[in-house]
Design a protein that fits this description.
heterotetramer, A: alpha/beta, Glutaconate Coenzyme A-transferase, ten-stranded mixed beta sheet, three-stranded antiparallel beta sheet, 9 helices, B: alpha/beta, eight-stranded mixed beta sheet, two-stranded antiparallel sheet, globular, CoA-transferase activity (chains A, C)
Chain lengths: 272, 257, 272, 257
């Protein structure tokens, strides 16, 4: 059964230095508040997993939390590069960042396989791509029925899965609505999980087949109002596309980034 | 070039016209998304647009900035998980055409969105593959749209993120259960198609006011031209109006107005 | 794009003699009306696929439509045996029935793999079971990452998938609600598909992540009011548990079955 | 045997007591479902009941006749697809205990729900495996409940539909990533547990009024008894009342009243 904790306590309890952490939310419901709390607590040597690193991992990488990144598309959507990510990959700043690179289809299947308790995912993937040459986790197997050659990758089973959702009820059951991405999979595949929510309510108001994650499948719930900002929460607030554009200039410059981080994360008591 | 539309508009309108009404199209963000929505708002009202964020049959009123903007979900028939999107809808063979952009393309239509230079010491690190590697192989066919320049059109891409026809044009030969690959490339200068034999890109249509020399100058290899080269039809007044209104709505929306 | 047809025309167009047919609905939304239409049209030599054959396949088997059955649990839920199925398996009446037997987990994964366009499904299944000794479609593969032995079966890719759903809109988009079983998978995995619905409406009234199957992924829609009876349609009518109990006596006796079939299916103009 | 409750009620109450509050339980239809719901309505209000129809955390007011009765969906926290149920929830390791019935069981707790006789020429064809083969291996542990008779308790099952501990008691040894298997069998006569060494079933508790001879008579092999055999506690008045009300509600409901 999920414990309802403060965000500080949830991160302190479940995110250890050196942990493998998947913070998901496909453009929508990105758990920024949780990311900022990880930065504030000075976590180090994390292996960060995320299909689209987005600003949240640009910030964690720039703040020096990450040792390794597993991802499939590392840009600022519709804007351009993630400059902190590029600075780490191209220049080793603030330190060297190991990367392991997949396609979206593969990561989605690897999360699915992780949630399904399997050691591997199988898909029709990477046909003719050079990615298998630079990612030694990609293997190929032969279908025992048809002989077809299919890609196989290890499933994703992080130490901690972190997502943001619209709301939880008082028993810790969580409703995720709208673009649900791989959020359920990130929670179910992980050994521990933290779900931040906009609010805790008496009744989720969910329809029969809504995306609801039961409280007993979650480690900790923390209220984080506007916890997905500057991404968005369907039914609560829109994406701040302007901030995504402004991020380009902030992240392009090491000092500008550090000043932004100081003011908006390190010196901020809680969520921005 | 005629002065009442830009070369970008010419590219978008031409790309839009490639989509037929009723097709299911897996849409990449940026130029493909612009073209696909223009198609939907003009000649192809029943084109089915699918974005990798899980949004099925979406009808955005403004162009999304990201692949997962709220607009895509709010105007979708339904929204599924990302594993389901890639497994049931793309790999499951429900997509007629994948519409992609790219940072680099070569003469065999291979796409590079990974990096410039060497993988372990990149000169420029690009965003990576995203959905493209499997869109390009699991969709029935692939349309590609991007601006024409020597920087983007290279003889051999630095890295094959996404298969066109491989380093030798034979990359799809004998591979079961994949689509036929790129069938056209639409730029701000021309339309190209792969040669049916060699799979090397051939210019089949030049946009109004564009010369052979313009294309040669903007292409990083000795580009071939079809024998009977066509003139790409100009945008109609309606297409231009719809496109401009769409872009104006989009700009206002993303500026937070 | 789905054609909106009469049930007669949909079955006539898509269900050929000798076809492999999956009629799904996990207890809920079982497509009885479509099954009766298949019986009325005298289809023969069908390979019938269904996790739980239930009364619908007891009727099709008893009526002589089936050559082979692929299934994972062949009882009358909460009541006992399917006597027409047993008569075919044990006595070869009305003729010999070949069976291929799986577990639920395997069939669910095989449908999932079929919908996902894969040739095989991989699962942690059949550990220590005798089923692989009597089903030569079950193989075992070794995970290339962990060495774990996992079960593999061919995916299910029927010629025709048939399901019943609550409603369609005028564009042929379908809402399935409640116990959704493997219905979406049965449609997506099949070469052709028929969806019967209680009604056609202007607006499905679906929430963002409801189980909606787009019209362009369906071959034919047919209105069949009470088309799942004696099973049920969430939001429309309940399961007729009394009929399920009465079925035991009807199906136990060859003549009683034939009389029931004559009166309720063969001589009935449409759906019972 | 005391006259104020039946041996069936004794069985159900004892099976119910095996479930602890807060456990997640994957419930088989029939006797397991009756016991699991009795537990939920008495000492274990927060037991989480999961049925293979995809209904998660369901709280039916009447017992379902089938595994997919509407009641299960209407009272569930949420309902997922059947592939998701078996993949994410069962195989994904979210289930503490699988609660199963069976047609035949042997001394090593192997279950047969496939057939009596030979596979190609069955004497009696039973329904088949259903969810059981993977429930028994992917749940943390397994409880089994069924009526005791020589017909059901056989030395060796005709067919191992579902693994207990194999033909020799070693069927789980060295198999990675599976649960510990059956930990108790509850009948209308007694409670049995597998011997920690040999895995052969041993009677650990006799129900009130039941003798060693009664169990021996109803078991198809030379059943062993624990050295310190216990007396199963009687049902409480409250348990009996809740169970009888539940069954009465259920009968009225399924008769269509």
């Amino acid at each position: 059964m999920a414990d309802i904790l403060s965000l500080h306590d949830a991160v302190a309890r479940y995110v250890d230095n050196g942990a493998t952490v998947a913070m998901e939310g496909f453009t929508h419901l990105i758990p920024f508040a949780a990311g900022h709390e990880i930065i504030r607590q000075g976590k180090r040597d994390l292996t960060l997993i995320r299909m689209t690193p987005d600003l949240i991992y640009d910030q964690l990488i720039g703040a020096g939390c990450a040792k390794k990144l597993i991802f499939s598309w590392g840009g600022n959507p519709g804007v351009g590069s993630l400059h902190r990510l590029r600075d780490a990959v191209e220049k080793g700043y603030p330190h060297k960042l190991e990367i392991l690179e997949h396609s979206h289809a593969t990561m989605a299947c690897a999360y699915e396989a992780g949630a399904a308790g399997l050691p591997l995912a199988v898909l029709r993937g990477y046909v003719g791509s050079d990615l298998p040459k630079v990612n030694d986790q990609i293997k190929f197997i032969e279908c025992p029925f048809t002989g077809e050659r299919l890609a196989a990758v290890p499933s994703i089973r992080p130490d901690v899965g972190v997502i943001h959702a619209q709301r939880a009820d008082r028993q810790g059951n969580v409703l995720v609505e709208g673009i649900i991405g791989v959020q359920k999979e990130a929670v179910l595949a992980a050994k521990s999980s933290i779900v931040t929510v906009e609010e805790i309510v008496d009744d989720l108001g969910a329809t029969p087949n809504a995306c609801v994650i039961p409280g007993w499948a979650i480690s900790a719930i923390a209220v984080a109002e506007k916890g997905a900002y500057p991404s968005y929460a369907y039914g609560y607030y829109p994406r701040d596309n302007r901030f995504y554009k402004e991020w380009d200039a902030i992240a392009r410059d090491r000092d500008a980034f550090q000043a932004w981080l100081e003011e908006n994360v390190l010196q901020a008591g809680g969520e921005v | 070039m005629s002065s009442h539309y830009t070369s970008s508009e010419m590219m978008t309108v031409t790309a839009a016209r490639a989509l037929e009404n009723g097709m299911t199209c897996f849409v990449g963000i940026g130029l493909p998304s612009e073209a696909a929505n223009l198609a939907r708002l003009t000649h192809a009202p029943d084109v089915v647009l699918i974005y990798e964020s899980g949004t099925l049959q979406t009808k955005p009123d403004v162009l999304p900035l990201s692949i997962g903007d709220g607009e895509l979900c709010e105007t979708a028939l339904t929204t599924v998980s990302v594993p389901e999107m890639f497994r049931y809808w793309l790999q499951g063979g429900k997509v007629d055409v994948g519409f992609l952009g790219t940072a680099q393309i070569d003469r065999y239509c291979n796409l590079n969105t990974t990096l410039i230079g060497d993988y372990t010491a990149p000169k420029v690190r690009l965003p990576g593959g995203g959905g493209a590697p499997e869109i390009a192989t699991n969709a029935g066919e692939v349309f590609i749209t991007l601006k024409h320049s020597k920087r983007t059109f290279v003889r051999d891409v630095d890295f094959v993120t996404t298969l066109g026809f491989g380093r030798d044009g034979k990359g799809r030969d004998g591979v079961p259960n994949i689509g036929k690959g790129p069938t056209r490339v639409i730029t701000d200068l021309c339309v190209m198609k792969p040669d049916p034999e060699t799979r090397e890109l051939v210019v089949v249509s030049l946009h109004p006011g564009v010369s052979h020399a313009d294309v040669i100058e903007a292409t990083g290899w000795e580009i071939r031209f079809a024998e009977a080269i066509e003139a790409t039809p100009e945008p109609s007044a309606n297409e231009l109006q719809v496109l401009r209104e769409l872009k104006a709505r989009t700009d206002r929306h993303h500026a937070g107005e």
